[in-house]
Amino acid sequence: MAACLRPLFLAIISLLMISSLTRSSEGAGIAVYWGQNGNEVSLEGACRSGYYDYVNIAFLVSFGSGQTPELNLAGHCIPSPCTFLSSEIEVCQSLGIKVLLSLGGGSPGTGRGPILASPEDARNVAAYLWNNYLGGQSSSRPLGDAILDGIDFDIELGSNLYWDDLARALSGYSTPERKVYLSAAPQCPIPDHYLDTAIKTGLFDYVWVQFYNNPPCQYTSGDPSKLFASWDQWAPYPGVNKLFLGLPADPQAAYSGGYIPPEVLISQILPVVQSYPNYGGVMLWSTFYDQNYSRAIRPYVNGDPLTYTTKSVKKSHAVA
Description:
- Helices cover about 30% and strands about 15% of the residues.
- The protein is of the alpha/beta class.
- Strand 2 and strand 3 form a beta hairpin.
- Keywords: Carbohydrate metabolism, Chitin degradation, Disulfide bond, Glycosidase, Hydrolase, Polysaccharide degradation, Secreted, Signal.
């Protein structure tokens, strides 16, 4: 009997392995923000850690409406340009990591926030980003000759107008040879004040929702119900392609809560969110705070097909 069952057992294991590999190829992984603390690991060091699949260089804090574009990378390079990062970006990309430039941020910094004055202004900003950070040409590229993979929208200040126009203009630069990837980092309350219209274009490859600093829709100690209810709303939301769970990597990384201990994330949260077909992974703020968090959760972000079956996950979600 055992000899007869062995081929069947091997076939099942093979299918489970294929399922796991397929999930990984669909892009489930860890995204992180880098650039807002001069004491954090270098960009190359973050990529070589093996924990991240996407790195957002943060932030281009002001642009548009006649403003001189300002790249603020805290203590890494003041002022820009930061052309030494070009070789580090290329190392990250050689490791299969997508590197994006993040627009905006949640701190006022030295500017008045990004403001787009009109659809034409949005198209001009897209041209600036294309020529200075993406596949175009400029004599003054702030990050050097490296070509970034795309643009991240983390708009939390300034105007809430014309971000959809910017997304369309940037998407228009994609070619069959080189895609311009777009991501968005809205707050978890729906609709997001700044990015709702842009997200609904459906042009964003990744939406990493900030489930922190937002008590109505974040995890609180021992109670994931608000987080689950918000995830239920975001998963089918118009324009959301790949949905990521945005979290602080340390309690100190969030001023209004939302931190989830890694053991709780692994045992209670990931089994639920992974059951949704557009689950994309986890986003962390930020490399400075991420001392051991990504290392702890990395093996579980893609899900274990032996443990996280759709049936058992949905049952546990119903109980919660």
